[in-house]
Amino acid sequence: MPGIGKTTLAVHAAHRLHDAYPGGRLYVDLHGFDGQAPYDPAEALAVLLHAAGAGGDLPDSLDERAARWREWTARHRVLVVLDNARNAAQVRPLLPGAATCRAIVTSRSRLAGLDGASSLLVEGLSDEEAAALFTRIAGAARVSDDPEALALVIRAADNHPLLLHWFASRFRHRESWTLRHLLDRLAEAADPLDEFDDGELVSAFRFSYTELADPTQKLLRHLALHPGPDITVTAATALVGAPPDGTRIRRGLDDLHDFHLLEEPTPGRYRLHDLTRAFALRMFGRAEPEESRARAAGRLFGHYLTTAHHADLHTHPHRRRLPAGPECTSAYATGFRDADDASAWLARERANLLAVARTAAGEAPAYAALFPHVLAPVLRRWGTWTVTNELYGAAVHALRALGTPYALAQTLIEAADVLAQTAPDEALNCAGEALELFRGLGHPHGCADALFQAGRAHLAAGRGEASLRVLDEALTGYRQVGDREGEAGALNVQGAAFFQAGRHGEALGRVRAILGIYEETGNLLGRIHAQNNLGEFHQSQGQYEEALAHYERSLVLAQRHGGRQELDILDTNMGAVYQATGQTARALACFRRSLESHRAHGDALGEVNTLINLGTMYAETGHTGEALAHFRTAGDVARRIDSGYEYMRALLGVADAHRASGQFTTASQTYEQALTAARRTGSLLGSAQALSGLAHTALDTRRWGPARRHGTRAVALYRRLEAWEEADDLRRRLLEHPEVTGS
């Protein structure tokens, strides 16, 4: 039943159970019955994961997000309130993954499909409870002399706690009224919404609404147009078109809050009850001309777009942007002190920005064309890939209609950049169309950008050779236009492709070239990354002194000019060198410091790398259980962020640990999984390592045929990659067994 108090009861219960759930309490409104589109379970999972601090780059699919949620709740004893659910299918993926957690779900439907759930029907108050509630709010002295009228008021409210609260609040503030006068006013206010024909609920809305001053009525009507979950004073001011200082709107919001027509779940952020929104929308249609809706929406779009643009200027000051048109000049935009302030606003307004951008995509082509461009960096971080596709689709459609080929090409480039890791083939299509447009415009710089994005997409799809060919073209383009930063970016992706393919000499050449560019241009952050990459190369070759020297050079620069992420990466890498050189205590300190920071800041890729390093360290020191735990967690996180290469690395670690502990069957099965993952990502080195593991396991169990088959293929791959030491070691062990060689 709407407004019966389900949410209030759930939230109250969550507060009472606070001590039993030290991991925290989380809340999400699923919008099942409030006139807005019900939350897709994948988006609801994104909200929960970000609220839990387990966000970062999110995977696209519902199953992967649900797995990540279950993984997180398995490690945290939490209470989750899933409010206003549409059906059981919406709820199931959101349920925690451990019996130590609890979920409280509210819904207007019975959710019979939730197996194992205990149901509690929230009914109206008893007559005694209703009388006590009304009396407590209105005051005993005002109601004690007419118990019959009080009973009629309770009947008019149908014992509904929300209605009783409204009636009693209005009555308390009208000292000249009697209960009989209240009953008369309720009768006069009858004008129900269609869904509450002849019901008293709408009478209560009408009663409260008529008590509002005209400006406050207008405010309520306009608040109902906001598509997001909550609203700030500034956004409300933009909707109404009031003076930008927001003073009048703030007073109106306070009045609506006092009348219980508006909630303020957190200071300065307001939310309409679903019934209030429905009523206010009806009133808007009756009181406002149709063109006022479009004007209000335009002001709201302008507020969010311009403020997001200002935030992006702080957080990504060197980003190439489309020219800011009139859509980015709202008088209602918010300013920021610095990048941290801007980042905090983007995080707070995430759900509103997505809702407003999606609304603009269907209603306002001029804004639809710009929202994904302005939000591109955060769309990549938020992991809302379905919404991202939708927004870019609307932007591309709008820009085609507007006939702006440069803006269209640039938007396609950004779409490719955002989609490369999750939808590489779609990213490749975007980059290809952008390339044709830029060629038609005679824009060589844009052509280089399009080729660069095509190279990234090929690499993400496991097509390393194609990536290298396209990146060569991008490099030529960047050099022709004199873009040294673009050249360094293309060289960096090429270096990654060479490294993943095991072509280490060529990877080293690319990293050295990048360092030279950054030294020439004075890019200190680039020098930090290049020195680190050089350290990684030498470390992979077992050249630990050279690796540590590069890491230390990078660290000196990072401490002066870098940020948290650079320092965390260096901690992980230096820890690996300490581990390899027998300095276990120093290695463990580095790894733990890095892991704590990566998790605190939602850096999932950094978390995977650190977990793999910890797993390797524990395996080498004989702590197999600890090693397996870290490798498995690394694999879970890698799947969560859809990193096939890191998932392969985690599988190899698991397989090695099983083999070392004598679990040969499990080891072989896991090496097979790693081999599949390596082939999927195009990693020849990973394939060689998995085949080598299969050969060693077969030798351990005296299975000569599989040992010969897998070993021969692994040796051939190692030689192709010029990994002579690995090839010789495996071949030497194979030769120790005549049964394998047939000699």
TrEMBL record:
Keyword Nucleotide-binding attached: yes
Mapped TPR repeat ranges: 528-561
Residues in the signal sequence: none
Record-linked InterPro entries: P-loop_NTPase, TPR-like_helical_dom_sf, TPR_rpt
Keywords for this protein: ATP-binding, Nucleotide-binding, TPR repeat
GO MF term set: ATP binding
Pfam families according to UniProt: TPR_10, TPR_12
Entry protein name: ATP-binding protein
Organism (species): Streptomyces sanglieri
